[in-house]
Write a structure and sequence with these properties.
This protein is α/β, with parallel strands linked by helices. The protein has 2 domains: about 90 residues, Aspartate Aminotransferase, domain 1 (Alpha-Beta Complex), CATH 3.90.1150; about 240 residues, 3-Layer(aba) Sandwich (Aspartate Aminotransferase, domain 2), CATH 3.40.640. Helix 2 packs antiparallel against helix 12 and helix 4 packs parallel to helix 12. The longest helix is centred in the last third of the chain and has 19 residues. The chain starts with a helix and ends in an 8-residue tail after the last helix.
């Protein structure tokens, strides 16, 4: 068959092949000794005994599926309890559970801004946020990454617009592992009164006195109108959540967000697992200074080895290589050594910034860090001298 549809599909896939950007599914190995720095289970809670036990108990009680949308019978006591614990943890009055982080961001930013509104977004926000904003029809202006001065200048211009103004950022950026000056942004919120939406997906567990994230760390959570968090990263489960200062926002999305209304809800076992993980996260939070110090030291050591790595202390460590093929080859070499890392290429990141993305874990030992560093150093020598054989 050579229909116009298939011709278009074939052309798109061929272009991906030519550019070296064709994506394929790869089964994750379960080999003992594999060091997984590609996923986002930063607190190692996905296999935690308390989290697994909570999921098992909920499965026995509710079955393997919620079996309905949340507005029919899919909203169980497990979901309600998770909402309550999340609100208590973050100090927010209203919460809502979603099937995924992408769904949550797309729904919030696709429905809250209207066509006549203005959204000011950090240039490097996640694709899920961009997708929602574009669907809303609101005017989108992107300020320079983590540049509060540029944001302020755009806010000054917006004062005469008479429209609702939204400001959108991540608290820890998913591909760069850096973070904005949230205190400065809170001061701008006080001056300009915009609607502030913050995605905490990669800060949960790693930051904050109780592990509640960067907003807790900086003390600005009360200034944020909508907090987006994920259950599938540090909390070791699946799904996402949004927290609201205004109950009206929650009610609005329950009534108008198709993503919430028309989809079978998150399995109760996932909600129960996340509830148990919150308690584990709170208990572990006293140690997060150690993980952050390890992240800083690891970055410093990689820079000393000649790698392009930014300073910081988040769990996301980007090693920028620039060239796409080089990035894929190095990720493959690491996988051959039993180390899984993300190989991130355009269009996920800007052109010429292809990178390895390492997601650190709380249980990484000095031996683990040195293992990664050793393979990267050895590979660097081979890149500089292609005739040199890799030592085994």
């Amino acid at each position: 068959m050579n229909s116009p549809l298939h011709q278009r599909i074939d052309g798109a896939l061929e272009e991906r092949k030519r550019s070296g950007r064709l994506r394929r599914l790869i089964v994750r190995p379960s080999s003992p000794g594999t060091l997984n720095l590609a996923d986002n289970d930063t607190l190692d809670l996905a296999r935690d005994s308390a989290v697994v036990a909570a999921a098992r108990e909920a499965t026995l009680r509710y079955g393997c599926s919620s079996s309905a949308s949340p507005l029919i019978t899919g909203y169980t006591e497990a979901h309600r309890e998770l909402e309550r614990r999340l609100c208590q943890w973050h100090g927010a009055p209203n919460g809502l559970i979603w099937n995924s982080g992408f769904t949550a961001n797309q729904a919030v930013l696709g429905h809250l801004p209207a066509r006549e509104d203005l959204v000011l977004a950090d240039r490097l926000i996640h694709n899920s946020m961009i997708s929602g904003i574009l669907r809303s029809g609101a005017r989108l202006r992107r300020y320079r990454h983590n540049d509060t001065d540029h944001l302020e200048s755009l806010l000054k211009e917006s004062r005469v617009s008479g429209r609702a103004v939204f400001v959108v950022t991540e608290s820890v950026f998913s591909m760069d592992g850096d973070y904005p000056d949230l205190s400065a942004m809170a001061a701008l919120k006080e001056r300009f009164g915009f609607i502030w939406i913050v995605d905490e997906a990669h800060a949960i567990g790693w930051f904050g006195s109780s592990g509640a994230g960067m907003l807790e760390e900086t003390g600005v959570a009360p200034a944020v109108d909508v907090i987006v968090g994920t259950l599938g990263k540090a909390l070791g489960s699946q799904g996402a959540y949004t927290l609201f200062r205004s109950e009206r926002l929650r009610d609005y999305l329950i009534n108008l967000a198709n993503e919430f209304i028309y989809s079978t809800y998150l399995a109760p076992s996932c909600a129960a697992a996340a509830t148990a993980a919150i308690e584990r996260c709170r208990a572990l939070a006293a140690e997060n200074g150690r993980w952050r110090a390890a992240s800083s030291a690891f970055r410093r050591n990689l820079r000393e080895d000649g790698r392009k790595v930014p300073d910081g202390d988040s769990p996301i460590v980007p090693v920028t290589l620039g060239e796409e093929r080089r990035t894929l080859d190095l990720a493959s070499t690491l996988a051959g050594e039993g180390i899984l890392v993300g190989a991130v290429r355009p269009p996920t990141v800007p052109a010429a910034t292809s990178r390895l993305r390492l997601s650190l874990k709380r249980r990484l030992s000095e031996t683990d860090y040195e293992r990664v560093r050793s393979v990267l150093s050895r590979t660097s020598r081979i890149e500089n001298d292609p005739d040199q054989e890799t030592e085994k």
